[in-house]
Amino acid sequence: MLTVSEALAAILERLEPLPVVSLPLRESLGRVLATPAVCDLDSPPFDKSLMDGYAVRAADVVPGEARLEVVEEVMAGQVASRSVEAGQAIRIMTGAPIPAGADAVVPVEQSDCTGNFVTFRTPIPPGRNIMVRGKSMRAGQTILPAGRWIRPQEVGSLAELGLAEVPVHRPPTVAVLSTGDELVEVGERPGPGQIRNSNESMLLAQITRTGGIPVSLGIARDTLAELRPRIAAGLEQDMLLLSGGVSAGKLDLVPGVLESLRVRQVFHKVQLKPGQPLWFGVYDRPVSEEGLREKKTGSSAGEPPASGGRCYVFGLPGNPVSSMVCFELFARTAVRRLMGVTPAEIPGLRARLKQAHDCRGNRPTYHPAHVELTDEGAVVEPVLWQGSADLSGTVEANALVLFPEGDRTYTAGEWLTAYLW
Questions:
Q1: Average pLDDT taken over every residue of the chain
Q2: Is pLDDT at 248 greater than 80 in this prediction?
Q3: What is the pLDDT of residue 388?
Q4: Main-chain dihedrals φ then ψ at residue 15, nearest 5 degrees
Q5: Domain coordinates in residue numbering, the chain
Q6: Mean pLDDT on 226-254
Q7: pLDDT digits 0-9 by tens, 151-183
Q8: Which of 14, 37, 93, 369 has a CA positioned 20 to 30 A from the CA of residue 341?
Q9: Topology annotation, domain 349-420
């Protein structure tokens, strides 16, 4: 049985980011930059004023004595037509280029202007209230590395770089198929021995939040006649998440169906709690003539290939918290790798335990928890949780906290690793 780190390594070594597509800047939010974004111009492209005030020679500003002649006014977007000479000042607005000869800007609040002459209340050193050319960015400088998730601030930076079209990795399409005779649709009232299909809704939401494109395949009953065609349809996507049917029960048919469809198993079972039955494999789609034509013409962003390429398959346990935890630790990492996120692995956060906690088990436990960021660092508190079937117990959680294998009582203040979700 693999450890969590071994399982993650086995997944990541088989995945590469999906092909690069070009999107209009306004559509790039939530995607991942495929190539470095390099500055083409110094920013600011000139020395500019940071204040509304007067561009002066600092040596001329003598409080209560110097009376400088205001020889021009410069607005943002304009360039002064003359230099600042001894005994002169130019009225300037925020963002306007600094006139030649000036080496400081006195804020208007620190000056008194009468007619065409201005006096000052305090001295000013050279360079004050001026942002020099290239202070923010230099031409040729890499501003955003490849692998950076594009948030609103990255959109603004890309706009400043003049990138109207942005190269990003195509987000993966991720299919979800829930399996089990006991499942009914969310809007139905369960009968004896039945439960609502909560896993599908949860997984589709997790995929969307991670940046993938969710594809619902509904419910497949525990028969080969239902499982095989539904799984085959899912293999046409970039990833397939199967919920349930991967343990050792009589009707846990999923591994056998996957084998019959020529999905290569990479591993089955991981040393963790909850989520031990996790299954992972890879399917290489055959390339048809239609697929070859599509390869030549290219496909639009967000559309899965009709044939050829790979599908990465995760068999998730049917218990809802097990399914959720396996997605957060493994499938989310896979989606991030396919999107080109660097690093793909979910980073751990060191956090102090808020109160004593008993943990029992021969496997590492990823316990739903709430992390609070304080001035003294992160503090983590395990939520009240009754096990892998207790999905409602996770609604107060925003993280998983890792308790290593073994029986022991953890004391308040101990440092542990948490994974935010």
A1: 92
A2: no
A3: 86
A4: -110, 145
A5: 4-19+170-339, 23-40+144-169, 48-131, 349-420
A6: 86
A7: 999 999 999 999 999 999 999 999 999 998 888
A8: 369
A9: Beta-clip (2.40.340)
* Digit-coded pLDDT (tens) for 18-51: 999 999 999 999 999 999 999 999 999 999 999 9
Q: What's the pLDDT score for residue 306?
A: 47
Tell me, letter by letter, the H, E, C secondary structure of the chain: CECHHHHHHHHHCCCCCCCEEEEEHHHCCCCEECCCEECCCCECCCCEECCCEEEECHHHCCCCCCCEEEEEEECCCCCCCCCCCCCEEEEECCCCECCCCCCEEEEHHHEEEECCEEEECCCCCCCCCEECCCCCECCCCEEECCCCECCHHHHHHHHHCCCCEEEEECCCEEEEEEECCCEECCCCCCCCCCEECHHHHHHHHHHHHHCCEEEEEEEECCCHHHHHHHHHHHCCCCEEEEECCCCCCCCCCHHHHHHHCCCEEEEECECCECCCCCEEEEEECCCCHHHHHHHHHCCCCCCCCCCCCEEEEEEECCCHHHHHHHHHHHHHHHHHHHHCCCCCCCCCEEEEECCCEEECCCCCEEEEEEEEEECCEEEEEECCCCCCCCCHHHCCCCEEEEECCCCEEECCCCEEEEEEC
Q: Average pLDDT in the 234-240 region?
A: 97
How is residue 47 written in tokens?
């020395």
| Closest C-alpha to 161, from 142, 175, 174, 180 | 142
Strand 20-24 with 165-169, pairing: antiparallel
**If one looks up domain 4-19+170-339 in CATH, what number appears?**
3.40.980.10
CATH architecture of 48-131: Beta Complex (2.170)
Domains 48-131 and 349-420 share a fold: no
Superfamily of segment(s) 23-40+144-169: Molybdopterin biosynthesis moea protein, domain 2 (3.90.105.10)
Over residues 210-234, mean pLDDT: 94
